[in-house]
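Extended Data, record DUF1295 domain-containing protein
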Amino acid sequence: MDVNKMNAWTVFGLGWLGLVVIFTAVWAVQLKTRNAGIVDAVWAWTLGALGPWFALNSTAPIEVRWLIGIMPLVWGLRLGTYLWFRNHGHAEDGRYAQLRKEWGESQNLRMWTFFQVQVVFSMLIALGLAVAAQRSDAPAPLWLWLSVVLWVVSIAGEALADRQLAAFKANPANKGRVCKQGLWKYSRHPNYFFECVHWVAYVPLALGAPWGFLSLIPPAVMAFLLLKMSGIPATEAQAARTRPEYAEYIRTTSAFIPWFPKS
């Protein structure tokens, strides 16, 4: 194995180890607070921090290093801070409360395992950044610009969706109701849609690099998580239990990709 490849594996492994330690510390905190929701913000912050970590230990040209260092960091800071303030001071998110109820006496151990599974998925999602960081040449200017455009669209779209939902929930008259305003009129989860677009933004940076095809894994993993695991299934199960009109919302509104609602 050559030196650069060994360094790449070392950088990736140390990033993984760092997340294991951080998520274990968060797990220890939630043992006292009984609120596992803090992991949502920490997940975004730590995943975003992997960008600068890979950039600082990169063999790529400077323009690629700047992009993989800054873009994920800004994404992580925005989303993590939003999630922190959304959850701080409130009761535990219904998804985690439901897991505690299902797990019973084994909840502490299973919650630690659940947190470590999130670390595994974080590292899979970071593959695109890791691959781009180890290239020796720069992508064509068109791919660099495409990466930036996709990133801007994703950040703006997700931030707008989050703001629209927060404004809807802030109105006491909307308590127990379903947000169908703005982007939420065209998708039940526009924030999730733009989240996937965000991870597509790093594919152009890895095109032409050795193992560049691995950059397709992050958006696929994110789509799987949001569509099949902890995203839409858990969120909609909770919404269906607490909001009577959610069944009609499901019938008329696209689950993921924004589209015109059914009549």
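Summary. DSSP finds twelve helices and no strands in the chain.
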